[in-house]
Structure prediction request, 327 residues.
Amino acid sequence: MESADNGTRTAVQTVGSLVLGLTCFVGIPGNSFVIWVILLRMKQRSLTVVLILNLAVADLVVLITLPLWIYSISNSWVFGAASCKILTSLIYCNLYGSVFFITLMSIDRYLAVIYPFASLQWRRKEYVCKAVVIAWLLAFLFAVPILLVRDVEIFNGILHCSGRQYASKAQQIACLVLETLVGFVVPFSVLVICYGCVAKRVGQMNFQKKNRSEMIIASIVIAFVICWLPYHVFNVVELASVMVEPGSDAAETLEDVSVLGSFITGTLAFINSCINPVLYAFAGRNLRDAFRSSVMSKVFEQMAQSTRDESPPTSDNTTRMEIVDSL
Prediction:
């Protein structure tokens, strides 16, 4: 029975290492390429492009740490407790940043379609800078609890940087609820409301041309939901294990399920950081038969057209269609 458990654990470790290795191999050059295109190949950058740039930076920082996690999965955590706390909080800071930037993209689309004239003020450089700074500050703030509770633990005689040392049951509940609400529930609710309103308003307009950049953002949101929903489901399972009677069979079962599920879904969550640049490339291929860096520049430059000074449109609906199409 023990050998079977060891075999299962070895298989999970092997699959996890391979998945993270592939994620690192694809994601680091992919996000680096997106950053290079935006910084060096574009003359004008709209709010959407600035958010995509910060999203790529956040994803890249997460992926750079993956070799350490791959080594620790295959062997053990040999980098010390302090590095475990710092690296984990760094990852959560950038993951929260990714969530906030995706959320800001949806709010930007909502304002552009529902309040086209007011959105022009929102897109001014000073507001864009403030929004980005606030998003990063909030990401750092919500990552602080991870810095406080994360610690190295011994599992089957091997050190792992996956343990959480809570001072009390109330602290554990607060951390789990905060992580799920801020990391998924609230952002996902904002996405659904914003894109629902956008879809309803665009459906009322005689607007047939597909919005390429809208497809990019929608794809990012879908990938985010697929990659992160399972992780937060097991967060809820862990929360349930805390709420039931301590020491009971139900509590132990739920705890075992949450530990195993969090490991698997945590690996899945990393994939989100490498999918985004692939989504950009897919959108670029819809514009041209072959993928070239200049195509990526044209895609982002089309997004940036909304910031150019143009003559006033003839109607409010015309403004909405032009802004939506140029995002």
